[in-house]
Automatic annotation (TrEMBL):
Short name of one Pfam family: rRNA_processing
Biased composition (Basic and acidic residues): 100-141
Signal peptide: 1-20
Recorded name of the encoding gene: CCDC59
UniProt cross-references to InterPro entries, sorted A to Z: Fyv7/TAP26
Keywords from the named record: Signal
Protein name: Coiled-coil domain containing 59
Region of interest (Disordered), ranges: 72-142
Domain of life: Eukaryota
Gene Ontology cellular component terms for the protein in this record: nucleus
Amino acid sequence: MVWCCFSAGVFNCLFPVLSGRGFAFRRKQKIERQYRRLLKKRRQVHSQQDDQFTDTYPEHLKHLYLAEEEKLKKRRRTPDDSVSSEEKLNKAAESVGTQEKFKNKTSNEKAKEEYEKIKAEHARKKEEAEKRRQQREEAQRLYKKKKMEAFKILSKKTKKGQPNLNLQVEFLLQKIQQNT
C-alpha cells in the first residue's frame, strides 16, 4: 500500500493508493466469494440429506424409511463403484446387438415414411371436409323445403284475394305443438 499526498491545493488529505487492485482483482474476489457460497450451499444440502433419515422412525414405517435411505446412498455412489469392468463389457456387447436389430433408417426411408404420413393426413382431412360439406348441403336442402311449405301455406288466398287466416292459424298451432 502506498500513501500519496496531493498538496497542490486541490487535495489536502492523505489517501491510500492500492496497487494491483484494479477491475481484474475485484472480479477475482467476486468469483471466489461465489465459489465459497456454492461450497457452503452444497455442504448444507448434503447435511440435510444425511439428517433426513437420522430421526426416530415409527416402528410400523421403519422398514420403508430405511429402504429409502439405502436407495439414496446407492444413487450418491459413482457408477464405477457399483459396476465391474466385466459387466461394462457385457452391457456394451448387448447394446451393439440391439443396435443391429434396430438398424437406423436411411434418409430416403425416413423421407418416404414422412411422405406417407403427410399423404394419409391430407386424405383424412379431405374426407372430413367432404362429409361436412354434404351435411351442410343436406341441412340447407331441408331448411329450404320447410321454408317453401310454410310460404305456400301462408301465401294461400281466398276466392276474393284475402289471406286465408284459417290456414295461417293452423300453421302457427302446428309450430307451437312441435316446439313443446
